[in-house]
Amino acid sequence: xxxxxxxxxxxxxxxxxxxxxxxxxxxxxxxxxxxxxxxxxxxxxxxxxxxxxxxxxxxxxxxxxxxxxxxxxxxxxxxxxxxxxxxxxxxxxxxxxxxxxxxxxxxxxxxxxxxxxxxxxxxxxxxxxxxxxxxxxxxxxxxxxxxxxxxxxxxxxxxxxxxxxxxxxxxxxxxxxxxxxxxxxxxxxxxxxxxxxxxxxxxxxxxxxxxxxxxxxxxxxxxxxxxxxxxxxxxxxxxxxxxxxxxxxxxxxxxxxxxxxxxxxxxxxxxxxxxxxxxxxxxxxxxxxxxxxxxxxxxxxxxxxxxxxxxxxxxxxxxxxxxxxxxxxxxxxxxxxxxxxxxxxxxxxxxxxxxxxxxxxxxxxxxxxxxxxxxxxxx
Length: 379
Hints:
This protein is α/β, with parallel strands linked by helices. 37% of the residues lie in helices and 15% in strands. The protein has 14 helices and 14 strands.
Protein backbone atom coordinates (compact mmCIF):
# COMPACT_ATOMS: atom_id res chain seq x y z
CA UNK A 1 0.00 0.00 0.00
CA UNK A 2 1.40 3.37 -1.01
CA UNK A 3 0.53 6.57 0.84
CA UNK A 4 1.85 10.14 0.42
CA UNK A 5 3.89 9.77 3.60
CA UNK A 6 5.56 6.60 2.32
CA UNK A 7 6.65 7.93 -1.06
CA UNK A 8 10.38 7.88 -0.43
CA UNK A 9 10.46 4.34 0.93
CA UNK A 10 8.08 3.11 -1.75
CA UNK A 11 10.12 4.75 -4.47
CA UNK A 12 13.31 3.02 -3.36
CA UNK A 13 11.51 -0.28 -3.05
CA UNK A 14 9.93 0.08 -6.49
CA UNK A 15 13.36 0.50 -8.04
CA UNK A 16 14.25 -2.96 -6.78
CA UNK A 17 11.09 -4.70 -7.97
CA UNK A 18 11.90 -7.86 -9.81
CA UNK A 19 9.86 -10.17 -11.97
CA UNK A 20 9.08 -13.62 -10.60
CA UNK A 21 9.39 -16.64 -12.90
CA UNK A 22 5.90 -17.71 -13.98
CA UNK A 23 6.62 -21.38 -13.64
CA UNK A 24 4.59 -23.85 -11.62
CA UNK A 25 7.88 -25.01 -10.15
CA UNK A 26 8.94 -21.53 -9.01
CA UNK A 27 10.69 -21.96 -5.68
CA UNK A 28 9.21 -20.48 -2.56
CA UNK A 29 10.09 -22.17 0.68
CA UNK A 30 7.09 -20.63 2.44
CA UNK A 31 4.60 -22.42 0.16
CA UNK A 32 3.59 -25.90 1.23
CA UNK A 33 2.82 -28.66 -1.27
CA UNK A 34 -0.96 -28.36 -1.03
CA UNK A 35 -3.80 -27.79 -3.49
CA UNK A 36 -3.20 -24.08 -2.87
CA UNK A 37 0.48 -24.14 -3.85
CA UNK A 38 -0.04 -26.40 -6.87
CA UNK A 39 -2.17 -23.82 -8.63
CA UNK A 40 -0.53 -22.20 -11.65
CA UNK A 41 1.80 -19.26 -10.94
CA UNK A 42 0.88 -17.28 -14.06
CA UNK A 43 -0.11 -14.01 -12.39
CA UNK A 44 3.44 -12.76 -11.70
CA UNK A 45 4.80 -9.58 -13.30
CA UNK A 46 7.56 -9.12 -15.86
CA UNK A 47 10.18 -6.40 -15.45
CA UNK A 48 8.37 -4.27 -18.04
CA UNK A 49 5.09 -4.65 -16.18
CA UNK A 50 6.73 -3.72 -12.89
CA UNK A 51 8.11 -0.57 -14.53
CA UNK A 52 4.62 0.29 -15.79
CA UNK A 53 3.22 -0.12 -12.29
CA UNK A 54 5.91 2.17 -10.89
CA UNK A 55 5.14 4.80 -13.56
CA UNK A 56 1.41 4.64 -12.83
CA UNK A 57 2.13 5.22 -9.13
CA UNK A 58 4.23 8.24 -10.04
CA UNK A 59 1.42 9.65 -12.19
CA UNK A 60 -1.05 9.24 -9.32
CA UNK A 61 1.30 11.00 -6.91
CA UNK A 62 1.97 13.85 -9.33
CA UNK A 63 -1.76 14.40 -9.95
CA UNK A 64 -2.75 13.74 -6.31
CA UNK A 65 -5.10 10.92 -7.31
CA UNK A 66 -5.85 8.45 -4.51
CA UNK A 67 -8.44 5.66 -4.35
CA UNK A 68 -8.64 5.31 -0.58
CA UNK A 69 -9.31 8.49 1.38
CA UNK A 70 -10.97 9.47 4.64
CA UNK A 71 -12.58 6.97 7.00
CA UNK A 72 -12.62 3.22 6.56
CA UNK A 73 -14.44 0.93 8.97
CA UNK A 74 -14.50 3.65 11.61
CA UNK A 75 -10.80 4.53 11.43
CA UNK A 76 -9.03 7.39 9.71
CA UNK A 77 -6.76 6.31 6.87
CA UNK A 78 -4.27 8.33 4.81
CA UNK A 79 -4.87 8.72 1.05
CA UNK A 80 -3.48 5.68 -0.73
CA UNK A 81 -3.50 3.47 -3.82
CA UNK A 82 -2.98 -0.28 -3.66
CA UNK A 83 -1.04 -2.30 -6.23
CA UNK A 84 -3.82 -4.79 -6.92
CA UNK A 85 -6.29 -2.07 -7.91
CA UNK A 86 -3.70 -0.25 -10.02
CA UNK A 87 -2.88 -3.51 -11.80
CA UNK A 88 -6.53 -3.96 -12.79
CA UNK A 89 -6.31 -0.76 -14.83
CA UNK A 90 -2.86 -1.52 -16.22
CA UNK A 91 -3.89 -4.95 -17.46
CA UNK A 92 -7.06 -3.55 -19.00
CA UNK A 93 -4.90 -1.04 -20.93
CA UNK A 94 -2.13 -3.44 -21.96
CA UNK A 95 0.20 -1.97 -19.33
CA UNK A 96 0.19 1.49 -20.92
CA UNK A 97 0.58 3.77 -17.85
CA UNK A 98 -0.90 6.94 -19.41
CA UNK A 99 -4.01 5.13 -20.68
CA UNK A 100 -4.40 3.29 -17.38
CA UNK A 101 -4.09 6.54 -15.43
CA UNK A 102 -6.79 8.20 -17.54
CA UNK A 103 -9.27 5.42 -16.76
CA UNK A 104 -8.17 5.10 -13.13
CA UNK A 105 -8.57 8.84 -12.53
CA UNK A 106 -12.02 8.83 -14.16
CA UNK A 107 -13.11 6.00 -11.87
CA UNK A 108 -11.76 7.73 -8.74
CA UNK A 109 -13.79 10.83 -9.65
CA UNK A 110 -16.87 8.71 -10.42
CA UNK A 111 -16.65 6.80 -7.12
CA UNK A 112 -16.37 10.02 -5.13
CA UNK A 113 -19.32 11.56 -6.99
CA UNK A 114 -21.50 8.55 -6.13
CA UNK A 115 -19.99 8.22 -2.63
CA UNK A 116 -19.79 4.55 -3.55
CA UNK A 117 -17.87 3.38 -0.50
CA UNK A 118 -20.47 4.96 1.78
CA UNK A 119 -23.31 3.64 -0.38
CA UNK A 120 -21.96 0.11 0.00
CA UNK A 121 -21.25 0.43 3.73
CA UNK A 122 -24.73 1.82 4.46
CA UNK A 123 -26.82 -0.14 1.93
CA UNK A 124 -30.19 -1.28 3.24
CA UNK A 125 -29.99 -5.08 3.51
CA UNK A 126 -33.21 -6.01 1.70
CA UNK A 127 -32.48 -3.60 -1.15
CA UNK A 128 -28.92 -4.92 -1.45
CA UNK A 129 -30.21 -8.49 -1.67
CA UNK A 130 -32.82 -7.53 -4.27
CA UNK A 131 -30.02 -6.11 -6.42
CA UNK A 132 -27.66 -9.02 -5.73
CA UNK A 133 -30.26 -11.53 -6.94
CA UNK A 134 -30.18 -9.79 -10.33
CA UNK A 135 -26.41 -10.12 -10.73
CA UNK A 136 -23.71 -12.85 -10.90
CA UNK A 137 -23.32 -14.73 -7.61
CA UNK A 138 -20.22 -16.25 -6.05
CA UNK A 139 -20.27 -20.02 -5.68
CA UNK A 140 -17.76 -19.84 -2.82
CA UNK A 141 -15.18 -21.66 -4.92
CA UNK A 142 -12.06 -20.74 -6.88
CA UNK A 143 -10.52 -21.90 -10.14
CA UNK A 144 -7.23 -23.79 -10.32
CA UNK A 145 -5.56 -20.39 -10.51
CA UNK A 146 -7.18 -19.17 -7.31
CA UNK A 147 -9.72 -16.76 -8.81
CA UNK A 148 -13.36 -16.72 -7.65
CA UNK A 149 -16.05 -18.39 -9.76
CA UNK A 150 -19.33 -16.52 -10.29
CA UNK A 151 -22.52 -17.79 -11.91
CA UNK A 152 -25.26 -15.72 -13.53
CA UNK A 153 -28.43 -17.63 -14.41
CA UNK A 154 -30.27 -15.24 -16.72
CA UNK A 155 -33.52 -17.24 -16.73
CA UNK A 156 -33.84 -16.67 -12.95
CA UNK A 157 -33.60 -12.89 -13.33
CA UNK A 158 -37.18 -11.64 -13.51
CA UNK A 159 -37.95 -8.45 -15.45
CA UNK A 160 -40.54 -7.48 -12.83
CA UNK A 161 -37.79 -7.44 -10.20
CA UNK A 162 -35.82 -5.05 -12.39
CA UNK A 163 -38.87 -2.82 -12.69
CA UNK A 164 -39.26 -2.70 -8.89
CA UNK A 165 -35.58 -1.87 -8.49
CA UNK A 166 -35.63 0.86 -11.13
CA UNK A 167 -38.64 2.51 -9.44
CA UNK A 168 -36.77 2.61 -6.13
CA UNK A 169 -33.51 3.70 -7.77
CA UNK A 170 -34.21 5.36 -11.18
CA UNK A 171 -30.52 6.07 -11.80
CA UNK A 172 -29.70 2.40 -11.17
CA UNK A 173 -26.62 3.54 -9.24
CA UNK A 174 -27.15 0.66 -6.81
CA UNK A 175 -26.47 -1.80 -9.64
CA UNK A 176 -22.81 -1.29 -8.73
CA UNK A 177 -23.24 -2.73 -5.23
CA UNK A 178 -22.73 -6.40 -6.21
CA UNK A 179 -19.51 -5.41 -8.00
CA UNK A 180 -18.37 -3.77 -4.77
CA UNK A 181 -19.19 -7.03 -2.97
CA UNK A 182 -16.66 -8.66 -5.27
CA UNK A 183 -13.92 -6.04 -4.93
CA UNK A 184 -14.40 -5.29 -1.22
CA UNK A 185 -14.88 -8.86 -0.01
CA UNK A 186 -14.63 -11.77 -2.46
CA UNK A 187 -11.49 -10.69 -4.33
CA UNK A 188 -9.35 -9.88 -1.26
CA UNK A 189 -10.48 -13.05 0.52
CA UNK A 190 -9.51 -15.20 -2.46
CA UNK A 191 -6.23 -13.30 -2.78
CA UNK A 192 -5.51 -14.02 0.90
CA UNK A 193 -6.08 -17.70 0.18
CA UNK A 194 -3.58 -17.49 -2.64
CA UNK A 195 -0.95 -15.22 -1.13
CA UNK A 196 1.82 -15.76 -3.68
CA UNK A 197 -0.07 -14.11 -6.53
CA UNK A 198 -1.95 -10.94 -7.45
CA UNK A 199 -5.46 -11.83 -8.65
CA UNK A 200 -7.81 -8.97 -9.51
CA UNK A 201 -9.97 -11.16 -11.76
CA UNK A 202 -12.85 -13.64 -11.80
CA UNK A 203 -14.43 -16.35 -13.91
CA UNK A 204 -18.07 -15.71 -14.83
CA UNK A 205 -20.35 -18.50 -16.01
CA UNK A 206 -23.31 -16.89 -17.79
CA UNK A 207 -26.11 -19.45 -18.08
CA UNK A 208 -28.64 -18.70 -20.85
CA UNK A 209 -30.42 -22.04 -20.59
CA UNK A 210 -34.18 -21.57 -20.93
CA UNK A 211 -33.98 -17.90 -21.95
CA UNK A 212 -36.42 -16.81 -24.67
CA UNK A 213 -36.26 -13.80 -26.98
CA UNK A 214 -38.82 -11.80 -24.99
CA UNK A 215 -37.12 -12.54 -21.67
CA UNK A 216 -33.75 -11.47 -23.03
CA UNK A 217 -35.18 -8.33 -24.62
CA UNK A 218 -36.82 -7.29 -21.35
CA UNK A 219 -33.45 -7.60 -19.62
CA UNK A 220 -31.39 -5.81 -22.25
CA UNK A 221 -31.21 -2.42 -20.43
CA UNK A 222 -30.07 -4.12 -17.22
CA UNK A 223 -27.49 -6.25 -19.02
CA UNK A 224 -26.18 -3.26 -20.93
CA UNK A 225 -25.88 -1.23 -17.73
CA UNK A 226 -23.95 -4.03 -16.06
CA UNK A 227 -21.61 -4.48 -19.02
CA UNK A 228 -20.95 -0.75 -19.27
CA UNK A 229 -20.16 -0.71 -15.55
CA UNK A 230 -17.64 -3.53 -15.90
CA UNK A 231 -15.95 -1.99 -18.91
CA UNK A 232 -15.68 1.55 -17.53
CA UNK A 233 -15.11 1.18 -13.81
CA UNK A 234 -14.33 -2.45 -12.97
CA UNK A 235 -11.69 -3.32 -15.56
CA UNK A 236 -9.71 -6.51 -15.47
CA UNK A 237 -12.07 -8.27 -13.11
CA UNK A 238 -12.72 -10.23 -16.30
CA UNK A 239 -9.78 -9.38 -18.52
CA UNK A 240 -6.76 -11.13 -17.03
CA UNK A 241 -5.43 -14.30 -18.59
CA UNK A 242 -7.57 -16.49 -16.39
CA UNK A 243 -10.57 -14.18 -16.13
CA UNK A 244 -13.34 -14.99 -18.57
CA UNK A 245 -16.99 -15.21 -19.50
CA UNK A 246 -18.34 -18.67 -20.28
CA UNK A 247 -21.81 -18.38 -21.88
CA UNK A 248 -23.60 -21.70 -21.58
CA UNK A 249 -26.77 -23.06 -23.15
CA UNK A 250 -27.02 -20.29 -25.74
CA UNK A 251 -30.50 -20.43 -27.30
CA UNK A 252 -31.06 -20.64 -31.06
CA UNK A 253 -31.68 -16.91 -31.37
CA UNK A 254 -28.39 -16.00 -29.67
CA UNK A 255 -26.26 -15.64 -32.83
CA UNK A 256 -28.76 -13.08 -34.11
CA UNK A 257 -28.43 -10.89 -31.01
CA UNK A 258 -24.70 -11.41 -30.46
CA UNK A 259 -23.84 -8.61 -32.86
CA UNK A 260 -26.04 -6.34 -30.72
CA UNK A 261 -24.56 -7.53 -27.42
CA UNK A 262 -20.88 -7.31 -28.27
CA UNK A 263 -21.21 -3.58 -28.93
CA UNK A 264 -21.60 -3.19 -25.15
CA UNK A 265 -18.04 -4.41 -24.57
CA UNK A 266 -14.56 -3.44 -25.63
CA UNK A 267 -12.79 -5.84 -28.04
CA UNK A 268 -10.38 -7.08 -25.35
CA UNK A 269 -13.40 -8.25 -23.32
CA UNK A 270 -15.31 -9.89 -26.16
CA UNK A 271 -12.16 -11.88 -26.91
CA UNK A 272 -12.54 -13.48 -23.46
CA UNK A 273 -16.13 -14.61 -24.06
CA UNK A 274 -16.70 -18.26 -24.96
CA UNK A 275 -20.14 -19.32 -26.17
CA UNK A 276 -20.80 -22.99 -25.41
CA UNK A 277 -23.63 -25.43 -25.90
CA UNK A 278 -24.83 -27.02 -22.66
CA UNK A 279 -23.27 -30.31 -23.78
CA UNK A 280 -19.86 -28.62 -24.04
CA UNK A 281 -19.91 -27.05 -20.57
CA UNK A 282 -18.19 -29.73 -18.50
CA UNK A 283 -15.28 -30.31 -20.87
CA UNK A 284 -14.63 -26.58 -21.32
CA UNK A 285 -15.01 -25.54 -17.69
CA UNK A 286 -12.94 -28.35 -16.19
CA UNK A 287 -9.94 -27.02 -18.12
CA UNK A 288 -9.88 -24.24 -15.52
CA UNK A 289 -12.01 -25.53 -12.62
CA UNK A 290 -11.54 -28.67 -10.53
CA UNK A 291 -14.53 -31.01 -10.69
CA UNK A 292 -15.26 -30.56 -6.95
CA UNK A 293 -15.46 -26.78 -7.45
CA UNK A 294 -17.83 -26.90 -10.44
CA UNK A 295 -21.59 -26.84 -9.69
CA UNK A 296 -23.55 -30.02 -10.42
CA UNK A 297 -25.63 -28.11 -12.99
CA UNK A 298 -22.55 -27.85 -15.21
CA UNK A 299 -21.25 -31.39 -14.75
CA UNK A 300 -19.30 -30.94 -11.52
CA UNK A 301 -19.69 -32.27 -7.98
CA UNK A 302 -20.45 -29.04 -6.10
CA UNK A 303 -23.99 -29.04 -4.60
CA UNK A 304 -24.58 -25.34 -5.30
CA UNK A 305 -27.33 -23.64 -7.27
CA UNK A 306 -27.89 -20.04 -8.28
CA UNK A 307 -29.40 -18.17 -5.33
CA UNK A 308 -27.68 -20.24 -2.63
CA UNK A 309 -25.10 -18.92 -0.16
CA UNK A 310 -21.43 -19.47 -1.10
CA UNK A 311 -20.20 -23.00 -0.46
CA UNK A 312 -16.60 -22.53 0.70
CA UNK A 313 -13.88 -25.09 0.08
CA UNK A 314 -11.91 -26.65 2.92
CA UNK A 315 -9.07 -24.11 2.82
CA UNK A 316 -11.46 -21.17 2.97
CA UNK A 317 -13.53 -22.78 5.74
CA UNK A 318 -10.42 -23.34 7.83
CA UNK A 319 -9.50 -19.67 7.45
CA UNK A 320 -12.87 -18.05 8.20
CA UNK A 321 -13.99 -20.49 10.91
CA UNK A 322 -17.64 -20.66 11.97
CA UNK A 323 -18.61 -17.83 9.61
CA UNK A 324 -18.62 -20.41 6.79
CA UNK A 325 -21.69 -22.05 8.35
CA UNK A 326 -23.42 -18.81 9.36
CA UNK A 327 -23.39 -16.77 6.16
CA UNK A 328 -25.22 -13.46 6.29
CA UNK A 329 -27.10 -11.43 3.71
CA UNK A 330 -26.08 -7.91 2.73
CA UNK A 331 -22.72 -6.18 2.25
CA UNK A 332 -19.56 -7.73 3.69
CA UNK A 333 -16.10 -6.15 3.80
CA UNK A 334 -12.59 -7.52 4.07
CA UNK A 335 -10.60 -5.25 6.40
CA UNK A 336 -6.78 -5.52 6.59
CA UNK A 337 -5.45 -5.34 10.17
CA UNK A 338 -1.92 -5.57 11.52
CA UNK A 339 -3.06 -8.09 14.14
CA UNK A 340 -5.01 -10.24 11.66
CA UNK A 341 -7.41 -9.29 8.89
CA UNK A 342 -11.15 -9.19 9.60
CA UNK A 343 -14.31 -10.02 7.69
CA UNK A 344 -16.96 -7.53 8.82
CA UNK A 345 -20.68 -7.06 8.33
CA UNK A 346 -21.81 -3.82 6.69
CA UNK A 347 -25.13 -2.40 5.58
CA UNK A 348 -28.15 -1.05 7.42
CA UNK A 349 -30.96 -3.00 9.07
CA UNK A 350 -33.78 -2.03 11.46
CA UNK A 351 -31.37 -1.81 14.41
CA UNK A 352 -29.03 0.50 12.51
CA UNK A 353 -25.64 0.21 10.82
CA UNK A 354 -23.95 -3.19 11.09
CA UNK A 355 -20.27 -3.44 12.00
CA UNK A 356 -19.88 -6.86 13.64
CA UNK A 357 -16.67 -8.81 13.04
CA UNK A 358 -17.74 -12.06 11.36
CA UNK A 359 -14.31 -13.67 11.23
CA UNK A 360 -10.83 -12.85 12.53
CA UNK A 361 -8.17 -14.26 10.25
CA UNK A 362 -4.76 -15.38 11.45
CA UNK A 363 -1.86 -13.01 10.87
CA UNK A 364 -0.35 -13.66 7.47
CA UNK A 365 3.37 -13.31 6.95
CA UNK A 366 3.08 -12.56 3.23
CA UNK A 367 0.20 -10.56 1.83
CA UNK A 368 -0.61 -10.66 -1.91
CA UNK A 369 1.37 -8.08 -3.84
CA UNK A 370 4.52 -7.38 -5.79
CA UNK A 371 7.71 -9.17 -4.75
CA UNK A 372 10.83 -7.05 -4.16
CA UNK A 373 14.51 -8.03 -4.39
CA UNK A 374 14.81 -8.56 -0.66
CA UNK A 375 11.78 -10.88 -0.59
CA UNK A 376 9.52 -8.24 0.95
CA UNK A 377 6.00 -8.07 -0.47
CA UNK A 378 4.60 -4.67 -1.37
CA UNK A 379 0.86 -4.03 -1.20
